[in-house]
Amino acid sequence: MNIRALIRNGAVGLLILGGCDTPFEPKGSYREKLVVYAVLTTRADTQYVRVYTTYNPTGFDPLEVGAETPVRNAQVSLTTESITHRLRDTTIFRIDKSRYSTELAAYVAYPLAINQGSRYSLAVVSPLGNVSAATSVPGKGSVLLANAYVMKEPEKFNEDIYIYLTLSPLSRGFMIRWYIDFEIRSGGAWSPQRLEVPASIETSGPNKDQFIYPALTRRSSETTARQTMETFGFARPAYRLFLKGLKSKYAAFEFRFKRAVFILTQVDVNLYNYYNIVSGFQDKFSIRTDLPDYSNIQGGLGLFGAMGEDTLLVDLPEEIEIP
């Protein structure tokens, strides 16, 4: 062995032996940060912002912590077009208390209708620090039903139901949902009902049909300089099976159709990125335990996003034949 190889091997050995005395801490250092979550929506005139802090579990399982860490003394504001709205502290009833037994702490702005196509800034000032974020609400879109005759008389046609969508340049993702409004007579009075129509059927075996519903989808065009046209199809076999199940479920009642409701939801780039990253890696066969994260909160963690909705109503005949 030459002297150069001997020196090299000795140096590697010293590094290995020296490293044995250094304690290994897989968690790393911890620094408390503000966490903010808010999604502006045109669906309602009430907007919520949640503010709390990160926490450091004693072990390696974050779910071992059974108490939230809300920040209740912050100053929270939303600003658009030089108009600032101050949010007030509130408490919201928590439906799922399997982990946290307390109610939801949040800040609320009411009434505050969100304007499609506008830009909003969020600011949080607290003793624990200040954070900020901004987002643009997608502008108005449009929904056009290409072949309503199939929906109204499915027994006469074999084609799927197609929807033409116009998306705002400010949107990154979209989802179209189709609902059927109908009424049943119970106790002498008509009761309004609504159910969602599936987009397709997935068959895993004999008599094992599963409805597939629309999901959030990335817009096909990358440009944000102009509106985008998208096409979405609802499979006629899924619609047929939906009608069959609907009439079977309410066979004991007097029944009449009212209208079809198509709701186009557009989301901004922040909400789409957050949803896509959180929902994108869901391989149940993988042994990976790491999950990517996304945040657009300056000085903290969390999400400030926006979504807008546009609706198309189409009247239906009171009776629809099942093909």
List keywords for this structure.
323 residues; mainly beta; Immunoglobulin-like; 2 domains; nine-stranded mixed sheet; four-stranded antiparallel sheet; 4 helices; 18 strands; 15% helix
Question: Could you provide a short overview of the structure?
Answer:
This protein is mostly beta strands. It has four helices and 18 strands.
What is the CA-CA span between the terminal residues?
A: 86 Å
Sequence of secondary-structure elements: HEEEEEEEEEHEEEEEEEHEHE
Chain-averaged pLDDT: 90
Number of domains: 2
State which percent range the strand residues make up: 35-45%
Helix content: 10-25%
- Gyration radius (Cα, Å) is 27 Å
Unreliable parts: 12-17
Shape: globular
The number of helical elements comes to 4
Structural class designation: mainly beta
Which sheet architecture does the biggest sheet show?
9 strands, mixed
Explain this structure.
By secondary structure, the chain is mainly β. The chain folds into two domains: 34-137, Immunoglobulin-like; 142-266 and 310-315, no CATH class. The chain is built from four helices and 18 strands. The protein has helices at residues 3-19, 148-152, 236-249, 269-280; strands spanning 34-41, 47-53, 75-80, 83-86, 88-92, 104-109, 119-126, 129-136, 142-145, 161-167, 173-186, 189-196, 200-203, 209-212, 217-218, 228-234, 254-267, 301-315.
